[in-house]
Amino acid sequence: MEEAMCIESPQNQDVADAKPVSETDSFPFGSGKSETHSPKPVATTIQTTSEFYSHVYKMNYPNRGKAIIINNKTFDRNTGLNERRGTDLDSSALNCRLSELDFDVDLHHDLKAEEIKNILKKAADLDHKDNDCFVCAILSHGEDGFVWGKDKKIPINDLMEPFKGNKCVSLAGKPKIFFIQACRGTKFDEGVDMNVGDVKGFMDVEPQFSLQKIPSEADFLIAYSVVPGYYSWRNTISGSWFVQALSEVLMKHAQNLDLLTMMTRVNQIVANKFQSNTSNPNMNEKKQIPCVTSMLTKEVYFKSK
User: Fold this and answer.
1) pLDDT of residue 268
2) Which tens digits make up the pLDDT trace of 34-59?
3) Residue at 92 is within a domain
4) Domain range spanning residue 91?
5) Closest by alpha carbon to 63, among 125, 124, 127, 132?
6) Is 158 contained in some domain?
7) N or C: lower Cβ tally within 10 Å for the chain?
8) What pLDDT is attached to residue 224?
9) Radius of gyration of the chain from Cα atoms?
10) HEC assignment per residue over the chain
11) pLDDT of residue 64 exceeding 90
12) For this structure, is 141 an active site residue?
């Protein structure tokens, strides 16, 4: 049954970013085997006391930072994964939006699992001391806790691990933002009917900075295209619901809203604007809601430099 559910036709329709499987493994962020202890790294991010305790991240370093987009469209035959038609519109939209926000964007297509891990490991090894933050967008098939390289799946936690504060010290205390467009299971959101009426419109001294300890897991934001357990929808002509909504919100509001508020706007667009339109009646008229996991400790603004 699942095999039939994931077959795409050449017409303009909505499809799900998942391998046709009935069971998925779970590997949430922060789980996994315990780490061996290594010498504590010396922090290279220097902040004044007022910056450290501010409610807003410092975003006036010389550079906005590195952004990496992984766009996987085709997959090895033995994976059983369909081509992700429409994803090139997503990668192009994100490339434009992030470039407009002054990020140094690297766009990669159709990478194997080890290639993805190596690219992100190299990015984490860079010196980010002059950067505001880091962004990574992964567009691929997925399961809960995993995304797919073109050859095999990867635990999402493995991709984020090198950026933790105790590993990438030049990003310690700075935002690490991940956008993940991929399925997280095989359930469909049937939605719920609502009766909607006819409504129109819808004095601080700065002492010498002292050493402060912060959680190594802090300052991450992971924006998933869908909640755990569910399919994530992508239109074969116009791109995925989540990334297109994200692109729209960044274009309109990046100069005046903080990131979490913008992600709430993205949730609203995906929830209210989209509904699946497919020739398979079992997949038709389904809904979707993104899911944002935030370990941010401050507000993120992308105002022009």
Assistant:
1) 98
2) 444 445 555 556 677 887 789 999 99
3) yes
4) 13-21+48-189+218-294
5) 132
6) yes
7) N
8) 98
9) 20
10) CHHHHCCCCCCCCEEECCCCCCCCCCCCCCCCCCCCCCCCCCCCCCCCHHHHCCCECCCCCCECCEEEEEECCCCCHHHCCCCCCCHHHHHHHHHHHHHHCCCEEEEEECCCHHHHHHHHHHHHHCCCCCECCEEEEEECCEECCEEECCCCEEEHHHHHHHHCCCCCHHHCCCCEEEEEECCCEEECECCCCCCCCCCCCCCCCCCCCCCCCCCCCCCEEEEECCCCEECCEEECCCEEHHHHHHHHHHHHHCCCCCHHHHHHHHHHHHHHHCCCCCCCHHHCCCECCCEEEECCCCECCCCCC
11) yes
12) yes
Q: Which one is catalytic: 6, 133, 136, 183?
A: 183
- The domain total for the chain is 1
User: Is 57 a member of any domain?
Assistant: yes
Taking 50 as the threshold, does the pLDDT of residue 98 lie above it? yes
Whether 7 maps to a domain, the answer reads: no
Parallel, antiparallel, or unpaired for β 104-109 and 14-16? unpaired
Q: Taking a C-beta distance cutoff of 8 angstroms, is the pair 53, 294 a contact? A: no
CATH number for the domain that contains residue 102 = 3.40.50.1460
For the question of residue 55 being annotated catalytic, the response is: no
CA 211 vs. chain centroid, Å, equals 31
User: For the purposes of burial, counting CB atoms within 10 Å of the CB of 256, is it exposed (0-12), middle (13-18) or buried (19 or more)?
Assistant: exposed
Task: Note the pLDDT tens digit of each residue in 114-144.
Answer: 999 999 999 999 999 999 999 999 999 999 9
Q: Which residue has the higher pLDDT, 184 or 305?
A: 184
| Model pLDDT, residue 290 | 98
Q: Is residue 256 pLDDT above 90, yes or no? A: yes
Which one is catalytic: 6, 133, 136, 141?
141
Task: Give the pTM.
Answer: 0.83
Q: How many residues does the chain have?
A: 305
